[in-house]
């Protein structure tokens, strides 16, 4: 069964902390994505990566960075967490081209206090 | 400009009835794909159905069908014979543009569907 695994389901961090959200996929997908989901705003793209060590900014990259050292792993980094980064974070992956959709992880609900 | 618009924040439907969830999209690319996802309260995103821009027929997957009206740029999801387990958030999404950037999906704001017994 193909999978996208996010390391934490729930996370509580303090303001100013450096936070790492990890995502691992076992489908050999080239493309990986980080979204945040907020009520009434839908899913907004933070960053994506189409290859190892390659990254592209999405619509809301401010306050975030990413790392993709290996094909299967895509990490989202909050350099200095703030309360407005409290949200649900969804990781997804996809093959390049074709009609295939995203495969999503189960999400990480991050609370910054 | 919004690429995907879902105008119904919340919908109610009686069990066993059909329901239509609206989605309009905006793209100038002739090649694009449209997707619907379901998100139950547990949070995982479940792929439901896909429609390609060149597909001649409306997509169907079991109780789900996609009413694709290309000229109107609409891709409404129809759920027939609603079940209590259909209560969830539903997101419409689009992929456009070839090349590596074309792997990005654009999502609507979602519709919360509640099925009433």
Question: What percent of the residues of chain A sit in helical stretches (DSSP H or I)?
Answer: under 10%
Please summarize the sheet with the most strands of chain B.
Answer: 6 strands, mixed
- Helical content of chain B stands at under 10%
What gyration radius of chain A follows from the Cα positions, in whole Å? 13 Å
Count of DSSP H/I helices of chain A? 0
Major sheet of chain A = 7 strands, mixed
By oligomeric state, this entry counts as heterodimer
Q: What does the overall shape of chain A look like? A: globular
**What's the total count of β strands of chain A?**
11
Let me know the average pLDDT of chain B.
Answer: 91
What are the segments of chain A in which pLDDT stays under 50 over at least 5 consecutive residues? none
Provide an overview of this structure:
The complex is a heterodimer of chains A (113) and B (117). Chain A has 113 residues and is mostly beta strands. Chain A contains no helices and eleven strands. In chain A, strands 2, 4, 5, 6, 9, 10 and 11 form a seven-stranded mixed sheet that branches. Chain A has a four-stranded antiparallel sheet with strand order 1-3-8-7, with no helix packed on it. By secondary structure, chain B is mainly β. Chain B contains no helices and twelve strands. In chain B, the strands form three sheets. In chain B, strands 2, 5, 6, 10, 11 and 12 form a six-stranded mixed sheet that branches. In chain B, strands 3-9-8-7 form a four-stranded antiparallel sheet, with no helix packed on it. Chain B has a two-stranded antiparallel sheet with strand order 1-4. In chain B, a hairpin with an 8-residue loop joins strand 10 (88-96) and strand 11. Chain B starts with a strand and ends with a strand. Chain A binds chain B through residues 31, 33, 35, 40-45, 48, 50, 56, 58, 88, 90, 92, 94, 96-97, 99, 101-104, 106-107, 109, and chain B through 6, 9, 33, 35, 37, 42-45, 47, 50, 52, 91, 93, 98, 100-105, 107-110.
């Amino acid at each position: 069964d193909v999978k996208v695994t996010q390391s934490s389901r729930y996370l509580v961090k303090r303001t100013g902390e450096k936070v790492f959200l990890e995502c691992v996929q076992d489908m050999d997908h080239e493309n990986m994505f980080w979204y945040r989901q907020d009520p009434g705003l839908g899913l907004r793209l933070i960053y994506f990566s189409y290859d190892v060590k390659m990254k592209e900014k999405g619509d809301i990259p401010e306050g975030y960075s990413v790392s993709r050292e290996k094909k299967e792993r895509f990490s989202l980094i909050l350099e200095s967490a703030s309360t407005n980064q409290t949200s649900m974070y969804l990781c997804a992956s996809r093959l390049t081209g074709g009609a295939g959709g995203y495969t999503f992880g189960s999400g990480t609900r991050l609370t910054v206090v | 400009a919004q690429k995907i618009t879902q105008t119904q924040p919340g919908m109610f439907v009686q069990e066993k009835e059909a329901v239509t969830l609206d989605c309009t999209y905006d793209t100038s690319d002739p090649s694009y794909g449209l997707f619907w996802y379901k998100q139950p309260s547990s949070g995982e995103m479940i792929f439901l159905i896909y429609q390609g821009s060149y597909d001649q027929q409306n997509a169907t997957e079991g109780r789900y069908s996609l009413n694709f009206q290309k000229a109107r740029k609409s891709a409404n999801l129809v759920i027939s014979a609603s079940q209590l387990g259909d209560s969830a958030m539903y997101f419409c999404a689009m992929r456009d543009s070839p090349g590596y950037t074309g792997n990005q999906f654009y999502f609507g704001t979602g519709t919360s569907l509640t099925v009433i017994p």
